[in-house]
């Protein structure tokens, strides 16, 4: 422990300091916007914006030193946000010192625009979104791989089908149907190679002038052959349906599924486990039961993964368990009532037996009384 380290850590993590740092980051971002609006080439007010840049660099350096001292040492470097802060502040210091670096390093000055990302560390709602996106990346990448494979398949086929579209477009007088705005032939420019074809289909996926500039020339080129013309139309329409209407929505669905609040998911899992523990060992009529095995729940013969449980599934599970518990309570009350009735009947029967014994001659003898 360094001298007064705990006090420095408490001071740095206080709400007032974090709000102040967040305001500085926001002001720095606004300053960059204003600079690129009124003096994009740094010709009119270079001194003003350079002074502002020095001010922000000094403030962020002091803030980083306080953070490093308060969280010394392993705790500081364990945070990826702190590593990002070190990179951003170091680039600012390098720019401020104006070191003699190779021309390629001059682009480091542009990194100051990324300082605004440091807000994600201090604003809890933004930080939750970033964490959720990071958690969703593996699943979304799988969906993107499927989308990329489909795009590659269509790109390969398009090179084979449409490479010769308008190959004589420059020789036909007055006919520019197959000539692109850049003066090239549509087939060679849009589908000449795999990379060109893949980019054309990415344009189709975005919906940017795909029908007029990409699909229609391919259809018109086979105008004299109606079957191939219809096939070309079906080729592009099927691509749009598969990618734009299906696979992109799959990507969004996976993203939303993976971005479920981890706190809510943990709470849902805890409540589910608690409910299952309360109902453990009990059952209902017709085999309607809920069982726990490892990380899965078996309800009515259907296995549900707790880790992948959605809010709707959780609500249904809780509702089912609650109904089973209510049924058990009702059955217990019913059994208790029947038991009371049975006890009452037994007491009445005992009185009747006692009356019968009294009617037997000699029943009041000591022997019968003992019996």
Mind explaining what this structure looks like?
The chain has 371 residues and is mainly α. The protein has 14 helices and 3 strands. The protein has a 3-stranded antiparallel beta sheet with strand order 1-2-3, covered by helices on one side. A hairpin with a 2-residue loop joins strand 2 (296-299) and strand 3 (302-305). Helix 7 (124-162) crosses helix 9 (194-206) and helix 12 (262-279) packs parallel to helix 13 (311-359). The relative contact order is 0.05.
Q: Estimate the mean pLDDT confidence.
A: 78
Largest sheet report: 3 strands, antiparallel
The helix content, as a percent range, equals: 55-70%
Overall tally of domains: 3
What is the CATH topology descriptor of the largest domain? Helix Hairpins
- Class from helix and strand fractions: mainly alpha
Q: Could you give the order of strands across the largest sheet?
A: 1-2-3
CATH class identity of the largest domain: Mainly Alpha
Computed over alpha carbons, the radius of gyration is: 38 Å
Low-confidence stretches: 279-290
Element-level helix/strand string: HHHHHHHHHHHHEEEHH
Strand content: under 5%
